[in-house]
Amino acid sequence: MSKTIINKFSETLQKKKLSVPKLFIATFITSLSLLGLIKLSTVFADTITWVGNGTSNGFCSTVTSDPSVSGQNWQFILTSPDGNGSYTLTTSFSPAGQTPASPYTVTSSGNGAVHFIINTAVGAKLLSASVTGGTSNSNLTVSDCTVGKASPTISTTPSAGGVIGVVLNDTAALSGGNAPTGNVTFNLFAPSDP
Q1: Counting C-beta atoms within 10 Å of the first and last residue's C-beta, which end of the chain has fewer, N or C?
Q2: Burial level of 72, CB count in 10 A (0-12/13-18/19+)?
Q3: pTM here?
Q4: pLDDT per residue over 21-55, tens digit each?
């Protein structure tokens, strides 16, 4: 029987203000295991919390483009999973909303890394993420993001015209871009040259 399992179970009971001898805990867990009611490897599945890995202030660090993608796909990787086959990722983004909805469960056989792909709006910021089914050696990382082709639009709001000497203004608003760069150029034409 692993001392780590006994100690963790004892700590859990202590948090609930219960004092139980470790020998009793070891006997209890072993009995459940021998009866086939539990697997020792599943007694203490760890919840792994994302700590910023793979992002810069919550925005994806590695971004590639794929015109076939709508929005932005985030790929999360859980390393060193516990091997039990069911893993649930819980996330929060700004603006809110993702597909599949959070929490999102995937199944994976073996102890290889587990991958999750979440779709959000382009430019969404990851606020928090955690996954069940990890171990003490696990990490939860954003490996990369794939962004679809942006469809930017521009609209302008010109001031009213007037007599000679009136100052004319125009304001442009660019939306729907993916980190756009460059300049917006305004040209003034006479009324006879629309």
Answers
A1: C
A2: buried
A3: 0.59
A4: 555 555 555 665 566 555 544 445 589 999 999 99
